Structures are given as structure tokens and as C-alpha cells.
Amino acid sequence: MASTFAGLDELVIAVSKGRILREALPLLAAAGIEPCEDPDVSRKLILETSKPNIKLVIIRAADVPTFVEYGAADVGIAGKDVLLEYEGNGYYEPLDLKIAACRLMLAGRGPVDNSSRRLRVATKYAATTRRYFAEKGVQIEIVKLYGSMELAPLVGLADYIVDLVDTGNTLKANGLIAMEHVRDVTSRLIVNKASMKIKHAQITGLIGSLAAVVA
């Protein structure tokens, strides 16, 4: 279903907090959409914008596809890393916004002898990591972590980690090296399937405006 708290002529855009929000705001502004309050100062999670028929919802990255699939938002902006882990399919992914670019990398202290056991890989990207190693014909044991990933090889919790890497400085500071490139990650525009039908003109207009800015 389309967004449940917006009218038929309104759009709700869900954006993940942090770096993606910071880099998405200039794109939205170029498309004529600016929040009426500073998201860094306001404690509100739903922000009115310079366009009376468009609202921004500021939420955790992992929640963006859920909000969009279930119709709490018509449109969302989320990293491809999050979308690859999401199990639903109730949205379209029409546009790569080319923002918040980074790499999903396999990293560790160096090659590991795994002749007597399965490799242990620490990551919060379990589904993506399993697919990556399955394509290589390698069976692994996933150790699910949500933070301080670099510690896992240092304390013997895992042989390797799969995590997002920007500059690589955190890896170096903890004695780890980037060993294999899993995939590139950028932020994408996603659209609720029902909203695309019901609010086709507004959404295709938004997609066109953002595509022109990205180009």
C-alpha cells in the first residue's frame, strides 16, 4: 500500500540518518526540496519541507526499506548495503544517487590456513557475505556482529571481517589489511510499488529531477 499518513497528492520520503542524510540534502535541495528545520538541530523525526506536499522522515538506515515496503513512506534513500540485506521486495529501485560511496571489503590480518575447519567471518552483512563466498565455492561460518568489527580477528573471534571501508584508516590502525573487494556501495532511491501506481506523476517527477541532478 502507499503511504498511510500522507494524502494522495503528498509524498513521504524516508532518509537514513548520518552520512546519507548529509549527502542527500544537497541533492534534494537542487530538486527544490529543503527541510523547513535543520535536521541536525530539530528533534522531530517528521520534517515539513519547502514543498508543502512533501515530508521527510528521518530514520535508521536499516529501517528505510521496511518503511517503504509497508507504505509508511512512498520513497526512501538508503545504502545498497542495507538493500542487499533486506529480505522483502515491495519496492522498486529506479535510481543510483551516487552518494555516500564506499566499498564492502573482506579484511583480516593476512591469509589463514583453513584446511582443517571452516573460515569464520565476522560481519553484520550476513546475507551478502554468504552469497559472496558461495559464488567462490567456499563454505563459511558467519559470526554476526554490529560494531567494533575490527576487533574480531585481533581477539580470535573470526578469521576475517566483511565491512564497509571508506579510507581504510581504521583497518590500518588495527593491523588489518583489505584483502578482497566484495562490492561497491552507493545510496539508492527506492519507491513503494503501490505509491508508484497511485502517485505516478509526483514520483516520476521526483525521479526525473534527482536523475538530472545526479547526471
Strand order of the largest sheet: 2-3-1-4-11-5
Question: What's the CATH H-level homologous superfamily of the largest domain?
Answer: Periplasmic binding protein-like II
Number of helices: 8
Number of domains as seen in the coordinates: 2
How many runs of DSSP E, i.e. beta strands?
A: 11
How are the secondary structure elements laid out?
Blueprint: E1 11-16, H1 19-30, E2 46-48, E3 54-59, H2 64-69, E4 75-79, H3 80-85, E5 91-96, E6 102-108, E7 119-123, H4 126-135, E8 140-144, H5 151-154, E9 160-165, H6 169-173, E10 177-185, E11 187-192, H7 193-198, H8 200-214
Parallel strand pairs: 1-3, 1-4, 7-8, 7-9
Antiparallel strand pairs: 2-3, 4-11, 5-11, 6-9, 6-10
Question: In a few lines, what is going on in this structure?
Answer:
The chain is an alpha/beta fold. It has eight helices and eleven strands. The longest helix has 15 residues, at 200-214.
Account of the 3D structure:
With 215 residues, the chain is α/β, with parallel strands linked by helices. It has two domains: 11-100 and 186-214, Periplasmic binding protein-like II (D-Maltodextrin-Binding Protein, domain 2); 102-183, D-Maltodextrin-Binding Protein, domain 2 (3-Layer(aba) Sandwich), CATH 3.40.190.10. The protein contains eight helices and eleven strands. The strands form two sheets. It has a six-stranded mixed β-sheet with strand order 2-3-1-4-11-5. A hairpin with a 5-residue loop joins strand 2 (46-48) and strand 3.
